[in-house]
């Protein structure tokens, strides 16, 4: 056996071991970085939703303070026009968040019902403003207000919890999820949905 053969075999073993270790370490590090990035995005979405819920409550309270009768908001000169713009903007941001969830998560039928319900709940304020009517929830026990709180809590939990799977839905499944969330069937059933999940 030559010196090259006696030194070469151990060097080759060391090189293969180091190369394999580097490959495994790189893959584990990449996977961990992806998990951390996904978690940060989930928490950011949860914070966005919680901010929008706060905006929803602020819009509702502002509108009820401004409403002195039944005066529909029809022109920019109306005292409630700015409140209507805020309500519309919040509703648009909720819609965008629902599209993000439909595209990024494998949702169950229960998830879709909760998200569809919370989307409808956010429409209540804008619709009342357009009609010029106060929201009129004088108690924290008012059924629609209880429903909004329940659906918002369930949505916050969904957003801040790690998904059941990190697999992303296909484009067809994401479209079906979003269609389910935005289906008008939730318009009449969102308070019932909240009762089921509260």
Structure, described:
With 198 residues, the protein is mainly α. The protein has one domain. Helix content is 77%, strand content 0%. Helix 2 runs antiparallel to helix 5 (171-181) and helix 3 packs across helix 5 (171-181). The chain is elongated, with a radius of gyration of 26 Å. The model has no long low-confidence stretch (mean pLDDT 84).
Count helical runs.
Answer: 6
Written as H for each helix and E for each strand, in order along the chain, the element string is HHHHHH
Low-pLDDT parts are none
Residues in helix, %: over 70%
How many domain regions? 1
Strand runs, count: 0
Provide the structure class. Answer: mainly alpha
SS strand fraction: under 5%
First and last CA, distance: 78 Å
User: What integer value in Å does the Rg equal?
Assistant: 26 Å
Average pLDDT over all residues? 84
Characterize the biggest β-sheet. Answer: none
What does the overall shape look like? elongated
């Amino acid at each position: 056996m030559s010196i090259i053969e006696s030194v070469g075999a151990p060097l080759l073993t060391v090189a293969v071991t180091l190369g394999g270790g580097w490959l495994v370490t790189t893959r584990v590090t990449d996977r961990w970085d992806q998990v951390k990035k996904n978690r940060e995005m989930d928490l950011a979405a949860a914070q966005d939703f919680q901010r929008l819920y706060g905006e929803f409550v602020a819009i509702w309270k502002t509108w009820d303070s401004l409403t002195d009768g039944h005066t529909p908001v029809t022109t920019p000169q109306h005292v409630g026009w700015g409140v209507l713009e805020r309500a519309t903007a919040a509703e648009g941001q909720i819609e965008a968040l629902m599209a993000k969830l439909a595209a990024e998560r494998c949702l169950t039928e229960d998830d879709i019902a909760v998200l569809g319900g919370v989307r409808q709940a956010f429409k209540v304020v804008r619709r009342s403003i357009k009609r010029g009517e106060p929201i009129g929830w004088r108690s924290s026990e008012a059924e629609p207000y209880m429903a909004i709180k329940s659906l918002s809590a369930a949505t916050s939990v969904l957003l801040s919890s790690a998904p059941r799977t990190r697999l992303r839905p296909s484009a067809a499944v994401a479209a079906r999820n979003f269609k389910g969330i935005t289906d008008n069937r939730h318009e009449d059933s969102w308070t019932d949905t909240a009762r089921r999940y509260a």
